[in-house]
Design brief:
The two termini are 50 Å apart. The longest helix is centred in the C-terminal third of the chain and has 37 residues, at 123-159. This protein has a two-stranded antiparallel ribbon with strand order 1-2. It has helices spanning 2-18, 27-37, 39-57, 78-88, 98-102, 123-159; strands at residues 65-75, 107-117. The protein has 2 domains: 25-63 and 120-160; 65-117, no CATH class. By secondary structure, it is an alpha+beta fold.
Length: 160
């Protein structure tokens, strides 16, 4: 009976030891996992995306500036009312009647304006664009160097 319990115990122990399989990881897999999960690399990649967005904001240097304006005025001041008529170029002989000149009633003047400006040469924005491009390249190199540093650290730890 003792021999049977020892054999059964040995079989159970062998099953338990097989449950703990060792997993071997290659250097390449270790580097990929470390680079993928490293916070410094993630932050560098986000900085790179922000720099790229800043560069694309400078595309506006080539676009026109458009402004739209609208004005509406109403007055019963005799001088302003006559001025509105002159601005509208709709003065008639009846408008010079002294009764109308002194007591014009309410007069309205409306104006709408659309203005488009196309810059010929905006050196400030051109230099800002060049600076944004340089910043984008800096963050790209920063991301690459961060990945290389993580790879170096993983390879160093793997060889030890």
């Amino acid at each position: 009976m003792k021999k049977a319990s020892i054999i059964i115990s040995a079989i159970l122990v062998s099953f338990l030891t097989q449950a703990q399989n060792l997993r071997h990881i290659s250097v390449k897999d270790a580097v990929e996992i470390a680079v993928k999960n490293n916070n410094n690399v993630k932050i560098s990649e986000l900085d790179e995306k922000v720099a790229n967005a800043n560069y694309h904001q400078t595309d506006a240097v080539f676009l026109p500036q458009v402004t739209v304006g609208y004005t509406a005025l109403s007055t019963n001041n005799p001088l302003n009312a006559f001025g509105f008529l002159l601005q509208q170029e709709s003065v008639t002989a009846m408008d010079f009647d002294p009764a109308k000149l002194n007591n014009p009633g309410a007069r309205q003047n409306y104006s709408a304006q659309v203005e488009a400006k196309m810059p010929l040469l905006n050196m400030d924005m051109i230099y800002a664009r060049k600076g944004a491009k340089a910043q984008e390249e800096v963050y790209k190199y920063k991301t690459e160097r961060a990945k290389e540093y993580i790879e170096f650290g993983v390879r160093k730890a793997y060889t030890q």
